[in-house]
Known about the structure:
Bound molecules: beta-D-fructofuranose
CATH superfamily of the largest domain: Glycosyl hydrolase domain, family 43
Distance between the termini: 27 Å
Oligomer: single chain
Largest sheet: 6 strands, antiparallel
Strand content: over 45%
Helix content: under 10%
CATH architecture of the largest domain: 5 Propeller
Amino acid sequence: MEKFDKKAIDARLAQGFPLEHRWHNRFHLEMPFGLINDPNGLTYHEGAYHIFYQWNPLGCEHKNKCWAHVKTRDFVHYTRPELSLWPDDVHDKDGCYSGCGLSEKGHLRVLYTCNRKEGSVRIPAQRLGTLQEDGSVRKDEIIIPDHPEGITGHFRDPFLFSRHGRRYLVIGAQRAENETGTVLVYEEREGSWYNLGEVHTRLGDFGYMWECPNLLQFGNYDVLVFCPQGLEAREYDRQNIYQAGYIAGHLSLDSMDMMQHTKFQELDRGFDFYAPQVFEHEGRHLLLGWMGMPDKDDDYPSKEKGWMYSLTLPRELRLRQGHIYSRPARELRDLRIQESAVEIDKSEVSSLSQTLFDGSEILLEIELGQAKQIEVMLNYGLERLSFQYDRVQQVMVINRDDMKRGGRGQRKFKLFVDQSLSLQLFVDKTAVEAFFQHGEEAASLLVFPEKNIQPELEIQTDVSLASVTGKVWALDSFKYQLNS
Length: 484
Ligand code: FRU
């Protein structure tokens, strides 16, 4: 049998849904077997959002990288995932790496990096493909056969964007001269692609590789999203092994300068977020990220069960004064069942607790009054995930130290709160996504509770709060249908 037998793998997937293990999330995309990572090829095409993602269907290692595919119109109902693109020729024999998608003349096309290694030499090629009726991607022409001069074999993850009717790519790269990260821009002219060189930023030596770039437009601003590797952790940021963030400015496609750009800011403050990609559709920017982290596989005990990682919920991005705000896409409100099932509305509280549903969304407005220390906790029996806010320091700490299995530790970031702390939490079986101050910051993380129990929400403070208002909704699961 072939290594990647689409029929056999799809049949195995069909048996794997609905996902049953207690660590499997209900409203996050994930697979019954294998390892998934970066979202790829995000495209709105003929009335539906197409989502591809990296997938090793053969095991929980970072190899055999294929693309899986699902389609949704509303981010609630999805086609059942299927195998769409897999390594089967000399160019991509070591993996169909990340890339983007485009809707072109009635076809959904993808552009991906063919990963090929000959001994220690990498020969990355960028290749187009076309999604076919049977759900597989037909491999078409290679548009960039290898890395250009001055760049090492770390050259991957093409992302297509248009300006003034012309098409361009950004591609993640490493400079040969000093092994530092950068991105290159290519321009299409009459069907061929020309290297316009690096985007010039003021970041200087900023890690050894930049992966997964996206070049987005928000009004007059250009936003370069990328994932630098090799930055040192600091007290209030860059605390994961690798980062996912952006700079906002104005990109000149003549000088290649990113002019007047902001500092590098992270898109997410949690433990488990990397390699995001954005759909730009009807003026909206919808982001999906990978809930996972390269080179940290030991933090994810679902590996023992034969699958690893999830994608985030779709988030809508807005740029305000050089900062990206991210909020859960409005479509997710349709997941709410048992509408407003529980109301929290108490004043003079210094401690409050409430049992959650098997999948919840929590919206809290906490009027701090005189309180200086506030802790919002999710208790899983004796295990605990907590959000600890120190109003004097203006620091939020996410603490997973009281979880027994999986990744632990803390993540700290600055958060300015005046009178009222706003928190929106999506609590799935293992995936938790938090939005602070109406999207000013977001955090994605996974917890692997030992017991299959509904978590309890608890709030503790040093001094009584002025008030807590909020709601808790039970959330429905994603619905997977037969592919049509
Ligand atoms: C980021 C990444 C990409 C690469 C892909 C391979 O997580 O390393 O740079 O294309 O994953 O799976």
